[in-house]
Amino acid sequence: MLISILLNLCALQSSGDFRYATVSVDSADIHAFYDAKSVVVYTATKDMPLKVVADMYPWSKVQIPGGYDLWVYKSLTTLDEFTGLFHVNGSRTRSRPLPSTASNSYPLGVFPLAAELIPLVVEEEWIKVRAPESISAWVLSSAITKTDKDLSSAWSGYSAERAAVSVIEVIVEETVTETSEPQNPSGADSELTSVFAVAETAPPLISDFDEAAIAVTPQDFFKVAMPALEQLADAVAKDYQAYDFEFVSLIETQLGYVLWHTSDVEHIASSRAALAKLDGMRSYYISRIASQLIDTPLAQQGKLNPKLRALRDRAMFSRDTSIDSTGIIVGWIEFKPRAQATYPFEIVRGKSNYLVQSFDSHYKLRDFANRQVIVRGTWRETNAADHKPVFAISELRIMPSANN
């Protein structure tokens, strides 16, 4: 059977700090994601020291001496011509294994705020940089050996060997001897330092959490996502036009990640409650748009305002459905045997209905009809009358009963 029913989750472990390890094979490919098909961001050689920051069998999340060579969107950085380094402008700038935002360029995480990046290759829109050592990627656990030994000396040696040099020509400024008194009082420097200290420890945003981060520490995600969801819900209740499509799509996807990876009943309950709040907010927004559609001169002429109708349709199908992109959907499998239906099954939740199919034909989902499930798959094109894409399921999990 080509649909894998994942009833047992992988063992997931995270440490607050790190544990040293060494590469135990001749060479070990380190991937951007815990998937052997994902992009290789570095190939480590035997005996190279690593820092293991998380485990998710059969993968380990590791940092390497000197950092990975990754790509960043050029417009999100600022060049310092006197140092030849690029500085990250915001706190949500993603590090990518390829100079692209396509699904195969899955971000490894976000660069630290104001991080200094050494440029290795500069293109029109992208820069390949030496990322800080804090950025981590994934290696098969079988390729490394963990140790309790202190490998800091070996780490420093490898880091020095991998030292990167900026490709930007540095502007050298002549040294000028300062003879006058400094213009800023002594307290200004300390005040400025405190401002930067606060900026560097700014609280994370929900966009900072990718699937790997949520899988390892879902509790950290909830601390950020739940207040943000409450804030949006309050804003929409006061003014329905505050509805944020991008936020709703992102947090809905992230809650799917939680449900896919966790077996903790509290996390499952929290995710379900958050999805219910999203559905309620979406229903409220759609109802307000529908009332606007009816109460217009165009409606009285038997026509619907195209802008309002587009907003309504977008709210009913707000998820990113880019062709060939992967995703996770949570909902109920429904069988709707329409006449000559090419795709008789749907995943339904709230106001959203997603056409689905399995790789072993369209009709092998009968056993799961009317069951609440979590499905992972890929978006594909379809010739359906309403031009909705179809979600090709590759893996499926049955959701536990809400009473458990």
What would you note in describing this structure?
The structure is a single chain. With 404 residues, this protein is an alpha+beta fold. 28% of the residues lie in helices and 28% in strands. The strands form five sheets. Strands 16-17-18-20-19 form a five-stranded mixed barrel. Strands 14-6-5-2-15 form a five-stranded antiparallel sheet. Strand 17 and strand 18 form a beta hairpin. Helix 4 runs parallel beside helix 6 (265-294), helix 5 runs antiparallel to helix 6 (265-294) and helix 6 (265-294) runs antiparallel to helix 8. It is globular and about 65 Å long.
- Specify the biggest β-sheet: 5 strands, mixed, barrel
Distance between the termini: 28 Å
Rounded to the nearest angstrom, the radius of gyration is: 25 Å
Shape: globular
- Total number of β-strand segments? 20
Instruction: Give the low-confidence spans.
Output: 1-16, 185-200
Query: How many domain units?
Result: 3
Note the run of SSEs as H and E. EEEEEEEEEEEEEEEHHHHHHHHEEEEE
**SS element count, helices:** 8
List the quaternary state of the chains.
single chain
- Portion of residues in helices? 25-40%
Strand order of the largest sheet: 16-17-18-20-19
Q: Into which percentage range does the β-strand content fall?
A: 25-35%
Name the structural class: alpha+beta
Mean pLDDT: 79
